[in-house]
Write a structure and sequence with these properties.
Layout (H helix, E strand, L loop, with lengths): L4 E6 L6 H14 L4 E5 L5 H12 L6 H25 L3 E5 L2 H10 L5 H11 L7 E6 L2 H8 L11 H17 L4 E5 L4 H20 L1
Parallel strand pairs: 1-3, 1-4, 2-3, 4-5
Length: 208
Amino acid sequence: MPQGLFVSMDGLDGCGKSTQVENLADRLGTLGIKTTTCVDPGGTEIGKILREILLHHKTHIATRCEALLFMASRAQLVDQVILPALGNGEVVISDRYLFANIVYQGYAGGLDPDQIWQTGMLSTAGLIPDITFLLDLPVSVSRQRVGKPSDRMEQRSDEYFEKVRQGFLTEARVGRQKIKVLDALLPASIVGDLIFSEVKDLLEMKKS
């Protein structure tokens, strides 16, 4: 069984999740807590190849194929990076994880979220974060922060991304996993303090 703590960050592009991954790792490091950060999809040599296909492939990718490519990248990430780090007692902080798959290809993409969850249990060997932070942001603000689309996912319509946002919020209410919704319109320092406080509490609970 994993001995460390597994944290993931998710939300629309521009919500600040990558910044908060780095911020949390830095703050835990000042306490002498060892961390591993990763990005999903990606994080391994196989994952990088799959990430390039998912974000920059020029021809149409069927939604089912897209969902399974994400799963394949995550399966390698779990085995090669996440489980070994957790086994060493580290805090693993992932920029996206299964939550995003359920939302982007499920709620927004038209696939069954329950089937994606079940497939996700295979790809992750049943490994779910101890907590996922959803940095909630209106689509209009996400678009402003991201600017000109740079990959095939970002080129999708505002209507699609509104479905993504509502999918995140709906899945957070479903209760399959522990998800903490935070307002990404707040200053990054305040969001970071909220995340750090929650993670410190979880670490204390792990010790007791």
